[in-house]
Amino acid sequence: MELVVLSSEEGAHEPSTRLSWAVWHDGQWCDFAQPGFPRDVHTCWWAGYGQEPRRVASWQASSLPGHTTHHTARPSGFSDAPLRTAGDTPAIPIHAGRYLDLSVLARILWPDWPGDSLASALVHCPPHPSSAGNDELPASARLLQGLQHQALQLSAHTLRQLAQTAAHLSPALAEWLTWAAGERARQFGEALPDGCTRVQTLVFHDTPEHPAGKAERTGDNHCPADLTPDGQEVAPADLLGPGGALARLLPGFQVRTGQLQMAHAVANALQSNHHLVAEAGTGTGKSLAYLVPAALHALRTQERVLVATHTVALQDQIAQRDFPLLQAVLNQPVKLAVLKGRSNYVCLRKVEQEALAVNWTRSATDTLSAMQLLVWVAQTQTGDRAEIALSATPDTHADVWPRVQSETETCISRRCPFFRPCFYFRARARAYEADVVVTNHSLVFADMRAEQRVLPRFDKIIFDEAHHLDDEASKHLGDEVHSAQMRARLYRLWRDHGRHGALPELVQRLSGSGTAAEQALPVLEHVLDKIPALQAAADAVWDALAQLFTGGHSERRLSPDLTSHPAWPQLLAHTDSLRQLLPDADRLCQRLELAAAAEPDLELSGRLQDCAGWLRDWLQQLHLLSAVCELHETQSVVWIEAAGRSETVSEWRLLRAPLDVAAILEQQLFDAKQSVILTSATLAINGNFAFAIRRFGLAGAARSARLQTLYVPSPFQLDRQALLCIPTDAPELTRLAPATAAEWLSTALCPWIELCGGRTLVLFTNHQVLRTTALAMRQPLAARGIPVLAQGVDGPRTQLLEAFRRNPHAVLLGVQSFWEGVDLPGDQLVALVIVRLPFAPPVHPLQQARSERLQAQGLNPFQHLSLPEAIVRFRQGVGRLIRTETDRGIIVVYDKRLLTARYGSKFLRALSGIPVRSGRERELLQTAAAFLSQRAD
User: Fold this and answer.
1) Could you tell me if 301 and 222 are in contact, meaning their C-beta atoms sit under 8 angstroms apart?
2) How distant, in Å, are the alpha carbons of 448, 663, 690, 837, 870 from that of 699?
3) Is the CB of residue 867 less than 8 Å from the CB of residue 873?
4) Fewest C-beta in 10 Å: which of 222, 397, 579, 864?
5) Backbone φ/ψ region at 899: left (φ over 0), alpha (ψ -120 to 50), beta
């Protein structure tokens, strides 16, 4: 097979575009990087990064940084006409469809590559001997070379699977993969790569089974594992203190007094079976401050310690950074494990089915995703979805991952041919054998709701990022029905009016098959008949709920007084219609489950169970929706909120949350467990934990002397590293309409952003103000070389943060999730702007209901709920700026309530000594410029 690999090049001083080329023949380079064009390429295929070109002059270029080589093109109805240069000189005749898109090939062979640029794709090119002497190759040719090397790491079987699947995408792609399969077979025969195995038609990485280790820990067998040679027990200070193991292991390790204080407090809480609330300011090193005593306690007592984080990102950080460090300094082997929610792990059985089902789909995205999965399972050792960047479409409910994720509802357990190597069950087994298990808040509450059937047994738990504890409890101990998620659940079963999906595909396969499973056909067909009516009834309920909304509000509490609303009778009628349809659907679902259990063919049994499980999941959502009018529940708050709108579709979310989360936490967490430790950078208000104690249900523990508190301030010199500026000539933005506020902000922000050369994070509380401000600022800042990145406009959170890190002069506009969890140390972030103080909307149904409850208790809702919540969130936002001891930056707050309101001083006192300057904006700009010009001590 022969390819001509082309790249367009624009000379630094030449307006015209030239082509660089290289000739690839069965993995070897014949000619490359010569001026002009190849000698005889009429039978060759073109390979390039991007899509098929028509004319060089029309290419949509994206180049490597510092280079002028362009590699992407836009399809524009290419025919048999020859490719021409900008000067219209005949070049290389390329026939329609005879091209190999290297961006597609890269997404398949590097399934963790996000597909954003050729520069990032080339990073994946591993150095190998065949690259010697080819430095002059055009970038596209170097990319093809790296992809060739990557392809040959796969088995011949996997490559043949990919080639067969690729026929649905591109003949060129299929033929190149066929060549790669032949080349792999020529070099290695049918041997599988190291660490891989094959079950049925799937080749996957098979990590060795975790050896049967310690039994489930009960604490009955005391084993003093953490002893030094002189027989003394190891204390946290022996690892974290001066001359300790970490200081010996890590050059430049800094002993931190606050870290030692916290580690001692955590060790004491675990040992004495009491609870601890510990605030540890930024820079304390709190991860090791709780992991070290947790590991030592588990080794000494054989009691498992659970660590729960709010974000998966912190779980990964602990696993990748802190675990290896901890294992290196402990003088005894310690078993550490990370356990995520089940849907984070891939199901190998479903991956095999997804690959086999390509023949039943017309979606190029589904086909590409199936190919990515085939490559990924041959490489991954964890099966964690964080490792793969699956192809996505604007239609987010069409994503492939929900169809291949591990689920309780669709699991056939020990009957599954992939049960032994199942990624989820192996992760769970490791957790059951571990000394310290790191999981997340949501899984802890899922375990609580499932009566301790999700997590391994534990009596000691540490919650990091604990300021989220009550919100997570409200979310996971309540219920939520999302209209878009309901469609996503249905999409797995039935889509394109029943032409595609698991149900019609299974009907097509079983019809006339002569198998025992054919007996399930009548049930499947009845389900298919029922789905349109069920979906129509659900849509009617959502439409009726939408009629309850009044202008200007995005949430509406469902309370008994709504029964007088004119739309209420219509809502009652539609929920009744939906409720009448559900019993028959439930019976059909049960019959499907029985058919799946009785089917002897394991592959067909799995497919039937998938359909039954997905149907059961969808029906549970319909049951919740049908009960929306049952408002007699007094211990919960029920409301509906707008979840996003387009020109054709409105999305809605129905939610129910417990009214008194503190009581639930007290009963099911603090009273039920021996030791619960809460830690965060923002738990106290001016050093006082009264709000956290009341908020989390710890009042009883405090009265019984089972609670201790610890306040560890940040070790940073915030009085020298940061400056808070409050412009007094700013308007009262809280009183302005969103459009007017955005117009003023777009003008006021520019001088601050220019002063800092970009490198600015602006935090909003209103999506509309953010979007309008971004639109107004984009052009004037672009003229100064400062790009604007706006949440909800320019991409999702992770993508925006990565773009901000790559561009040293950008400004980032965020709301909600950007107030915390953003880590931009050094010169990445120089200015932080807070547009408004982050008070929760008082009209939000949950906030409103909890305020009413406080009023009934004779308490002021503002003083006991709204204000302390806002101060905690404000501290989280301010904490984005100073991340290391050498950072230096300014904070600008446009909310003058800090100066004019009686409660403003409480916000300012919560800032740990950051100096405050107020005055006219022009004067503050000069003050800030002088501050930034000083060197940090």
Assistant:
1) yes
2) 21, 10, 9, 29, 22
3) no
4) 222
5) alpha
CA distances in angstroms from 873 to 703, 816, 888, listed in the order given: 28, 10, 21
Average the pLDDT over each of 193-202, 325-334, 640-649, 921-930 and give the range with the smallest value: 640-649
pLDDT at position 47: 59
Buried b (16+ CB within 10 A) or exposed e, 360-392: bbebebbbbbbbbbbbbbbbbebbbbeebbbbe
> CB neighbours (10 Å) of residue 134?
14
Residue burial 863-880, b: 16+ Cβ < 10 Å; e: rest: ebbbbbbbbbbbbbbbbb
Q: What are phi and psi of 348, to 5 degrees?
A: -65, -40
Note the pLDDT tens digit of each residue in 108-160. 999 988 776 666 677 767 665 554 455 566 677 778 888 999 999 999 999 99
On whether the CB atoms of residues 436 and 294 are closer than 8 A, the answer is: yes
Asked if 283 and 717 count as a contact pair (C-beta separation under 8 A), the reply is no
Give the whole-number percent of the chain exceeding pLDDT 90.
Answer: 57
Separation of alpha carbons 429 and 150, rounded Å: 32
Is the model's pLDDT at 686 over the cut of 90?
A: no
Place of tokens 């080819």: 134
> Whose structure tokens read 């306040």?
711
Tell me how far the alpha carbon of residue 777 is from its chain's centroid: 29
What are 891's strand-pairing partners? 724, 832
Q: Look up tokens 């103000």; give the residue.
A: 769
**Residue 26 to residue 537: CA distance in whole angstroms:** 58
Q: Which helix (H) or strand (E) holds 935?
A: none
* Dihedral in degrees, nearest 10, Cα atoms 805, 806, 811, 817: -40
Position 462 scores a pLDDT of 98
User: What global pTM score does this model have?
Assistant: 0.85
Alpha-carbon span 704 to 374, nearest angstrom? 57
Quote the Cα angle for 50-52-55, to 5°: 110
Specify the higher pLDDT residue, 331 or 220: 331
CB contact burial 789-813 (16+ within 10 A = b; e otherwise) = bbbbebeeeeebbebbeebeebbbb
**Which residues partner with 722 through β-bridges?**
889
Q: Which residue intervals of 756-844 are DSSP H helices?
A: 767-782, 797-806
**Spatial CA neighbour of 438 closest among 283, 304, 264:** 304
Query: DSSP letters of 145-203?
Result: HHHHHHHTTS-HHHHHHHHHHHTTT-HHHHHHHHHHHHHHHHHHTTPPPTTEEEETTEE
100 residue type, one letter = L
CA distances from 41 to 2, 4, 472, 725 (A): 9, 7, 62, 66
Element (H, E) at 909: helix 904-909
Beta partners for 275?
Answer: 707
Phi/psi for 720 (5° steps) reads -110, -20
pLDDT at residue number 136? 60
Which residues touch 489 (CB under 8 Å, ≥6 apart)? 402, 614, 617, 618, 621
Q: Are strands 650-658 and 69-70 parallel, antiparallel or unpaired?
A: unpaired
3-class DSSP state of 123: helix
Q: Which residue in 804, 873, 868, 881 sits closest to 836, CA to CA?
A: 873
pLDDT single digits (tens) 702-732 = 999 999 999 999 999 999 999 999 999 999 9
List pLDDT tens digits, range 321-353.
899 888 888 877 889 999 999 999 999 999 999
Residue 319 and residue 128: Cα distance in Å, rounded? 29
